[in-house]
Amino acid sequence: MPQIPGTDIVTSSLGLGGNVFGWSADEAASFDVLDAFADAGGTMIDTADVYAAWLGTEGGESETIIGKWMAARGNRGKMIIATKVGSAPGYDNLQPGTIRGALERSLTRLQTDYVDVYYAHYDRPDPLVDTMATFDALVREGKVRSIAASNYSAARLAEALDISADHGWNPYSALQPEYSLLERTVYDTELAPLCVARGLGTFPYYGLARGYLTGKYRLGGPAVDSVRAQGTAQYVNDNGERVLAVLEQVADGHAVPMASVALAWLSTRPAVIAPLASARTVDQLSDLLPAMGLTLTSEEIHALNLVSSTT
């Protein structure tokens, strides 16, 4: 089982994204997905206080559902819960008061007295020294087990790590970047080298390229009825088809869904702890779960590396 560097937090090799809970998956459907994920050995659940504020709410729907589910199942101690601060309406900064206030709201919704991983959701112009001091204090108070960054540039991540080191504070232990077979440049050239050098792990999101790497979206194929369809349009081209062809070949060789191969490939990449992926139904989740037990051969990894390096 993978472990977040510098911590005693051990996670499943696949993380379940909670962005769909309370949005495209209602409470009952969310409970079904969460049950199936836990039954398969999954422990890492990733959410944010802003999910799903795009519906016109104040956010927190996802956290509320996860909290109800853990309370109903009595399994809080078995799950690794990651949530985020810095994007919800009225809490869209990383000032000390905002961080503390948002955390208390998240803890209430999650029905817990601590979170395992607390992310700065996006980099903000607030002074990093104030942000890192507050995060450190929350770790020392036991309300947060580890702190992490999401959507940070390499330069700002390095600055945050330097500030924590200079003050003897708890540093960011993980990064959540966008990374997939179709989005490699920034991670491979900037973020991964820094994370390896500074001892951070990563939890990539959009590992399925917004659903494109499931194989449902094909050049010249039928339209797909999905809330993600618009986001995948950028990949429906000749380059995308070349990646899908190799992905499909590898998947057929293991008799697993293409999505699980795309996620398993991520797990072979530098600094990756576990990829994140979401599912609004148990059927969708079943395409992801084989990634947790899938080992790709060196030849398969090379083929995927080669075809995706040109996209």
UniProtKB/TrEMBL annotation:
Full protein name: Unannotated protein
Originating organism: freshwater metagenome
Pfam families reported in the protein's UniProt record: Aldo_ket_red
Domain NADP-dependent oxidoreductase: 14-304
One cellular component term from this protein's GO annotations in UniProt: cytosol
CDD domains in the cross-refs: AKR_AKR9C1
One of the record's GO molecular function terms: oxidoreductase activity
